[in-house]
TrEMBL record:
Name of the protein in question: D,D-heptose 1,7-bisphosphate phosphatase
The protein's required cofactors: Zn(2+); Mg(2+)
EC top class named in words: hydrolase
UniProt site (Stabilizes the phosphoryl group): 57, 104
Length: 177
């Protein structure tokens, strides 16, 4: 399905909440971090093949005063304890009202991650669980893959260029399984 991207993906970026770990809204507690099924195996497989991995995460709870940057850093450290190290992290601390260039569906975090990795957006994929993730990928010139959860809206599933049933399937669609 879709056009083949085999062999050209050099970096895979992931949304954090609802994609790599179970979504706990505005989570500031590392003890509540639970990986999504298969996440560790998928990441290890990418790392084994020399494909860069990263996280691009909206954390508007910071702007809204619900969690601190330190809380987010503590949760992210727990994510790495459970899932292994990522080559790049991009966090947007803003809310919709801030009109920043980083909050997905804006492409800023994807561009920044690619710049820091030294990898072109055309060789980069972004896997996420909502429409804002695949829209950010498209806006940046990267390949977006949607892995819906039960709370993903149906119209976002219909609009996504690539839809996978889980993380392993998402990577398979990239020709990198
Ligand atoms: Mg998400
Ligand atoms: Zn932002």
């Amino acid at each position: 399905m879709g056009s083949s991207t085999s062999g050209r993906i050099r970096a895979v970026l992931f949304d954090r909440d609802g994609t790599l770990v179970v979504d706990v809204p505005y989570n500031g507690d590392p003890d509540l971090v639970r990986p999504m099924p298969g996440a560790k195996a998928v990441l290890d497989s990418l790392r084994d093949r020399g494909i860069a991995t990263g996280v691009v995460s909206n954390q508007s709870g910071i702007a809204r005063g619900l969690i601190s940057e330190a809380d987010v850093s503590a949760v992210n450290a727990r994510v790495e304890e459970l899932l292994g190290p990522f080559d790049v992290w991009e966090i947007c601390p803003h809310s919709d009202q801030d009109n920043c260039e980083c909050r997905k569906p804006a492409p800023g975090m994807v561009h920044s991650a690619c710049r820091r990795l030294g990898i072109d957006e055309s060789s980069t994929a972004l896997i996420g669980d909502i429409g804002a993730d695949v829209r950010a990928a498209a806006a940046a010139g990267a390949t977006g893959v949607l892995v819906p959860t039960p709370v993903t809206r149906a119209e976002e599933v219909r609009a996504a260029p690539l839809v996978a049933r889980d993380l392993a399937h998402a990577v398979a669609l990239l020709g990198e399984s």
